[in-house]
Amino acid sequence: MHDTFRQGAVLLLALSNIVSSFWLGNSLDQGTDPTPVYFLPFGLTFAIWGVIFASQLAYGVYQVLPSQRQRPIHRQIGGWVALNAGLTTLWNLTAGAAGQEGTAGFQPLLVGVTVFILMVMLFALTRVFMVFHALPQRPTRRDHGLILFPFTVFFAWLNVAMIANTTAALDAFGFRGDPDGALWAVGMLAVAAILASVMIAYTRQVGVALTYTAVIVWALVGIFINNLDRSFLVSTACVVVALIVVVAAWLHLSRGLHGRVQAGA
């Protein structure tokens, strides 16, 4: 009974994420805003939400299959997945209700609320990420595609989105760090570089490390494009951080492969 309730909640909440995303509209997408909010990515970068929602739904269907219903991994992550999915729907509705900056109905307080919702979302997916790290055996190819991939993409994106969402909230309340906004953005990019490098070093699965790295680089590309005509300093910092993240992934994976070769020998 408990498994059935969990499975149903995960699947229904994954569907609610997709439905509620239509309510979101253009809220919080400041990628084309002429105001220099340096840390936010270019608008099209947010298309990754389509990948996130589709892969979450795929997992929701996967975990209700008869062969999956009693697997320990679903029991370990199911509660956190459901919590994250419920909060994602709440985030969509709250951000949508906040409206778009510059319009008469814009409500900055609700943008601030989205930051706290995202904090709990990130906590929930951090717990899922920790389960992935502690897996006692190598996941199957299907598990990689339908369990590890969806939540690694979401977790990696939230790592960047937490900073971007906070930046959007500060902007909503009129704080942009002027006249040193670009320096603030570079500082946040440095924090992102450290966080991403630590997370990559923490991973044990090659697929998880590669997926995490790809999402972080995707976000950095979006921030880079958004600053091409705004700040040479921030654009350059994006390139540097992307290189740091890629090198961190390469070093981590190289050490892992070297260790496996030695173990095999």
Describe, in plain words, how this protein is organized in 3D.
The radius of gyration is 19 Å and the shape is globular. It has helices at residues 2-24, 48-62, 72-98, 108-133, 141-172, 181-202, 206-226, 232-264. The protein is mainly alpha-helical. It is built from eight helices and no strands. Residues 258-265 have low confidence and may be disordered. Helix 3 packs antiparallel against helix 4, helix 5 (141-172) runs antiparallel to helix 6 and helix 6 (181-202) runs antiparallel to helix 7 (206-226). 75% of the residues lie in helices and 0% in strands. The N and C termini lie far apart (47 Å). The longest helix is centred in the last third of the chain and has 33 residues, at 232-264. It has one domain (2-31, 38-264).
